[in-house]
Amino acid sequence: MTGSATIPFVKMNGLGNEIVVVDLRASSKVFTATEAARIAADRTSRFDQLMVLHAPTTAGTESYVRIYNADGSEAGACGNGMRCVGWWLAQELGRNAFKVETLAGVLDTSVRDITSITVDMGEPRFNWQDIPTSEEFRDTRAIELQIGPIDNPVLHSPSVVNVGNPHAIFWVDDVNAYDLGRLGPMLENHPIFPERANISLAHVTARDAITLRTWERGAGLTQACGSAACAAAVSAVRKKFTNRKVTVTLPGGPLLVEWTDANRIFMTGPVAFEYEGVLDLDKLARVPV
Predict the structure, then answer these.
(1) pTM
(2) Which among 193, 240, 248, 199 is positioned nearest to 222, based on CA atoms?
(3) Whose C-alpha in 17, 54, 154, 205 is 20 to 30 A from the C-alpha of 177?
(4) pLDDT tens for each residue of 115-138
(5) What is the DSSP string of 2-55?
(6) Half-sphere exposure of 187 (CA within 13 A, CB side)
(7) What is the model's pLDDT at position 287?
(8) Is 84 a catalytic residue?
(9) 198 in helix, strand or coil?
(10) 253: part of which helix (H) or strand (E)?
(11) Integer CA distances (angstroms), 22 to 47, 60, 177, 213, 220, in order
């Protein structure tokens, strides 16, 4: 595939979260941020996240996966994208369990069928330096951050956690009562988040249920964000809002998330295959970002 002007891709989605999967395991090609943003800007290869399979760098893994957001920036984790990669690999390998590596570490994936794929999303990180935040917070269950007047803030006191990516979760009574399309960019780029952050609104509706909307770092409003679902679930447990196993309902549908006593986060949900296509690198070089 090296030197080719065209590269095949598969368009999928995880609960409406638009995913493009590209296999470069037999190639030395690595997409630049500009190339990734151009792929996202093209109508036929539009994505929220681009999952690029490279040759494995760790023994026992099937691939090293680079994850790009729609703006070309790289992400450490993408739960919906990893389920898509998992289903894609299961079709190729003819088995239902394997390991892949991302910037966030080695992840185990188990595929029952296209409606039920489980990804071990790893261990959450709660220390302010690991999230990271630009100042010290001893208790990251609720940090000092608000939008709006001091005596009547619109949003305030989010929980923060790193689940492959930085996440801030604001606890609200109605996730649709806020203009997340307006507030999301301000909060994503707030100086308190030196690497930017995914911004979520979460409503706990039962001991085993959370409703969630997310503004994704580098992608904007999406139908679903798997790592945000995991971040909300573990943060809800830390605040004693829920049990350790919850259904997180996003605009695109539900995910089952379990934070085990062994400090691993397991996320289970479906994916959908949309179509196959070809990236024309010569054409994409002319696509404005």
Answers:
(1) 0.92
(2) 199
(3) 17
(4) 999 999 999 999 999 999 999 999
(5) TT-SEEEEEEEEETTEEEEEEE-TT------HHHHHHHHHSGGG--SEEEEEE-
(6) 32
(7) 66
(8) no
(9) strand
(10) strand 253-259
(11) 12, 21, 37, 27, 22
Residue at 287: amino acid letter: V
Task: Choose, from 12, 19, 20, 78, the residue flagged as catalytic.
Answer: 78
Q: Which of 53, 172, 225, 231 is catalytic?
A: 225
Helix extents (H) in 131-278: 180-188, 226-238
**Cα 276 from Cα 10, distance rounded (Å):** 4
pLDDT at 284: 75
CATH class of 146-263: alpha beta
Right CATH number for 6-121+271-284 from 3.40.50.300, 3.10.310.10, 3.40.50.2300, 3.40.50.450? 3.10.310.10
Give, in order, the Cα–Cα distances in Å from 229 to each of 95, 185, 255, 272.
27, 19, 7, 19
pLDDT given for residue 125 in this prediction: 97
pLDDT at 151: 86
Could you give the angle at the alpha carbon of 106 between the alpha carbons of 41 and 190, nearest 5°? Answer: 50
Reported as type and span, the H/E element at residue 211 is strand 209-216
**What pLDDT was estimated at residue 1?**
42
Q: How far apart are CA 233 and CA 210, in angstroms?
A: 8
Q: Which two tokens stand for residue 190?
A: 């707030």
pLDDT at 289: 63
Q: Which residues of the chain have pLDDT under 50?
A: 1-3
Check residue 73 and give its pLDDT: 96
pLDDT at 60: 95
pLDDT of res. 43: 87
* Two structure tokens written together for 267: 């996320």
**Domain span(s) for CATH 3.10.310.10 in the chain:** 6-121+271-284, 146-263
